[in-house]
């Protein structure tokens, strides 16, 4: 009797990430994910009964990857040190991660429940800067500048050269 084929979550997530990038996060379906992963739709729905669950796992994986990278840049225990680490980690993201993350944000915007985790992530970072001090206000502006550039470039709304990218992030770091 042949052994049943096991479904690998990593393969499914990789296929879904590719599709999110290809469709800009707007129109990927479970059928498309199953086909890209090389599994049956039944196998996919056994592992992920809903698209929402799949997107949640994609989000967890992407946030975990980014947070680990951000932590590698953290030097000091002040809130502004964590904000500075966020800017540095964002600056170092490879273009494929920028694009994938931006398109994941687009996919999330269609699912209110998933959006809460992203909102919490950004709120935590935004709140690291103390708005009652000049340094805190500059840090908030720097954060908003880099996140705006991240979305503009990642979603393909504006062409941004690597030199422009590096310059904006260098200026942001000077502000923090």
TrEMBL record:
Annotated region of DNA binding: 29-48
- Name this polypeptide is given: TetR family transcriptional regulator
- Family annotation (PROSITE patterns): HTH_TETR_2
Check the record and name the InterPro entries matching this protein. Answer: Homeodomain-like_sf (IPR009057), HTH-type_TetR-like_transc_reg (IPR050109), HTH_TetR (IPR001647), TetR_CgmR_C (IPR041479)
| Keyword annotations of the record | DNA-binding, Transcription, Transcription regulation
The record's GO molecular-function terms, alphabetically, read: DNA-binding transcription factor activity; transcription cis-regulatory region binding
Lineage here is: Bacteria, Pseudomonadati, Pseudomonadota, Alphaproteobacteria, Hyphomicrobiales
Locate the HTH tetR-type domain: which residues? 6-66
């Amino acid at each position: 009797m042949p052994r049943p084929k096991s479904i690998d979550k990593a393969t499914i997530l990789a296929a879904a990430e590719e599709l999110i990038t290809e469709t800009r996060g707007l129109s990927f379906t479970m059928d498309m994910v199953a086909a890209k992963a090389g599994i049956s739709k039944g196998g996919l729905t056994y592992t992920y009964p809903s698209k929402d669950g799949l997107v949640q796992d994609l989000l967890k994986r992407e946030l975990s990857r980014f947070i680990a990278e951000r932590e590698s840049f953290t030097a000091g225990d002040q809130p502004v040190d964590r904000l500075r680490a966020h800017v540095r980690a964002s600056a170092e993201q490879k273009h494929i991660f920028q694009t994938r993350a931006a398109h994941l944000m687009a996919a999330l915007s269609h699912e209110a429940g998933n959006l809460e985790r992203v909102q919490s992530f950004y709120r935590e970072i935004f709140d690291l800067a103390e708005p009652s001090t000049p340094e805190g206000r500059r840090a908030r502006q720097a954060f908003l500048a880099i996140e705006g550039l991240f979305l503009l470039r990642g979603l393909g709304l504006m062409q941004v050269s690597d030199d422009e990218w590096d310059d904006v992030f260098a200026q942001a770091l000077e502000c923090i």
